[in-house]
Amino acid sequence: AIVLQLGKPVSCTLGPGLHFKLPFVQNVVYLDSRVLHYEANPAEVLTKDKKNLVVDNYAKWRIIDPLQFYRTLSTIPRAQSRLDDLVYAEVRVAIGSYTMEEVVSSRRAEIMAIVTSNVNDSVKPFGLQIMDVRIKRTDLPPQNEKAIFGRMRAERERQAKLYRSEGQEESAKVKSRADRERTVLIAEAGRQAEVLRGQGDAEAAKIYNDALGKSPEFYGFMRSMEAYRASLKDNGKVVMTPGSGFLKYLK
Asked: Are 60 and 36 in contact (CB under 8 A)?
């Protein structure tokens, strides 16, 4: 409580107990000694890399010297107004020393510690103490937000196009490699078939030759049977002279 004498602060009392004042000459003004909350309106600031950000911050503060507070600011609303100017100035200066990425992610705590310390030094002459200053929210200005989202969308589309192109190129390579392998396999299979066919023909010729050497009559009979089968298949008709030896094994 602040004791005023003829409108001027003359003393303050902080603790509980029995206190006196001169009637008609002195009166008492009561001040809140609790930790108070100040919340700033969103404001636009510029980062080190020339990016605009809309910052929404708050501060916790209290009166530590009631007499000095009353002499300089007198009321809580005036203190809030003064804090608004000081906090915004320090936030603007501090954020201007860091990039947007640092502000929104990696170094925010460091930035706010600097702001808290600087604002606390600035409010000491008013009998105040700053307990903490924090950024509640960081946004992009509406016009910047649209532009950044547009760039992000274009970058994603560029990446997608690149991936599709790489996929098509890889698909063409795989198809070409498969075609080459198929051609090689078909050629190898054809070569193997020719080799086997040649071996089969050679083996058949050897068998026929062996049969001819061992039994010429039986060999002639087998060859005639093969000729009959080839000539008379599918109900075919054969015309020949009466003395032809072609049908001698059918007599």
From this structure: yes
